[in-house]
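Troubleshooting: if your tokenizer reports a length mismatch, compare your output against this known-good record of 381 residues.
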Amino acid sequence: MKTLPIVAPAPARVTEVKNTGPQGRTGNILRSLLGVEEWLDKREQYFLVDLRSPGEFKAASIPGAVNIPLFSDDERAAVGTVYRREGPPAAKKVGLALVSPKLPWLVDTILSGAGTREILLYCWRGGMRSNSLAAVMDAIGCPVRCLVGGYKAFRRLVVRGLAGTSLQVPVFVLNGLTGVGKTMVIRRLAGLGVPALDLEEMAGHRGSVFGGIGLGAPRTQKDFEALLFLELWKHRKARYLVVEGEGRRIGPVVLPDFLITNMQGGPRILLEANLEVRVARILAEYLSTTAVQLKELTIAVNSLRSRLGEEKCSRLVGKISAGQFAEAAHELCTGYYDRLYKDSRAAAAQYQAVVNIDDPEQGVLRLLAVIEEYMSGRCRS
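Known-good structure output:
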């Protein structure tokens, strides 16, 4: 079976760490450290705690981590200022004064969140923040582990892993008109254990001018790459991958070159559905009656004025304001997105198959049959 080779850095060397207990006893706490490569295949058993400030966590984090910060952003800045002006000893004293009152809350929050899982702490480089709290928890009989190298080690693993990735298996690409249900199919396939990558979920964006509606802020490039790396690692022994057809960008994030290359050369499958089915799926995916999302819909339509013209955009905005969402979605499909897609769509002969997914369950079964037929023929050849 061919694999999806992912190059990872050599395992981190964990040096022996000594801990002097309250009675002066010195113990070996080597067992409390966990290398990022070892964590990779045991992620489910750990309650992963990011001790960095909220700002650091928002910029990038390890997927699945819970942010329980030792310092607020302002407190972290204050400690850093003292460090630069007065040196490490003074900064440690300031940090201790800030953290000490929070210790009961920190411990209780971590323990209640962990449940039966092991606790794994990390900070920026696996240094003072994580080791200090680990020492406190160990002292009160709540043993935890620390991630060697912290977030920086994980990020290094992701960068080197993606740079060294070479997909040696087919990447099936699902194409189709707006609202046909490509993402729905990807999620159904993943739920069946099929190696399907939901790139839009990883990006936190659907890819069009309407792509961010109802989703909040899109993910950062670093967080997207982290999620992609973990999915590729999860499916590293798969016979194939399935993705939705995407451009080089999904919202603000950029797909890596190796994935674009494999998508461009992979077998394509065209998904089709009745227009009314597509409109219903668009409404289910995008529609909310909250004022914020109605405002987002209006902004998105207005961004198309240079392409659709003033008259058509004003009419669409009017329909949205009047709650005529189905009519607006129908007009956007027939008057813009369908025409745009047909202009760029590959010739019918370039598709491995055309699969109707008016009935999602039957459509997914047909899609799986097409994939298996392709893989069987590939094995025979």
